[in-house]
Amino acid sequence: MTIELQLWHLITLLTMFIGAAWAGFGVLLQQVDRRLETRFSGLEMARDAAQRNTDAQLAALADQSRREVSAWQALERDFLNWKADLPIQYVRREDYVRNQTVIEAKLDGLRLSIENQYLKGGHHD
């Protein structure tokens, strides 16, 4: 059995083979493209989720920072008020000792005055 091929049959077969190979290659490229698209969309969704998470964390840190700044400002304001009220509410030890010494000296003077009056005869038994 012999097979005879004419040139135009060979060209037709070759063209059909190249067309089939080209179609197979096109299908393969479409599948690769779909897989890449799926993978990239998954990566994009993961990146978006990570970005939202990062944004939420940064917002929480900024809010915490604002609260801390507010707390420090309140503490500083309270401290300044305390410093302003301190001289009015409290007496220094040295001032207290000096005032107490003056009071005791006056009491000693009053006692001495009463003793002198008593000794001069100003008492009746």
Explained architecture:
The protein is 88% helix and 0% strand. With 125 residues, the protein is mainly alpha-helical. Among the domains are: 50-78; 91-125. The longest helix has 83 residues, at 7-89. It is rod-shaped, with a radius of gyration of 52 Å. The chain starts with 6 loop residues before the first helix and ends in a 6-residue tail after the last helix.
State which percent range the strand residues make up. Answer: under 5%
Q: How much is the average pLDDT?
A: 91
User: What value does the Rg take, in angstroms?
Assistant: 52 Å
Low-confidence sequence ranges: none
Secondary structure category: mainly alpha
Order of helices and strands: HH
**Strand elements, count:** 0
Q: Report how far the terminal alpha carbons are from each other.
A: 172 Å
Measured as a percent range, the helix fraction is over 70%
Which word captures the global form?
rod-shaped
Biggest sheet record: none
Number of helices: 2
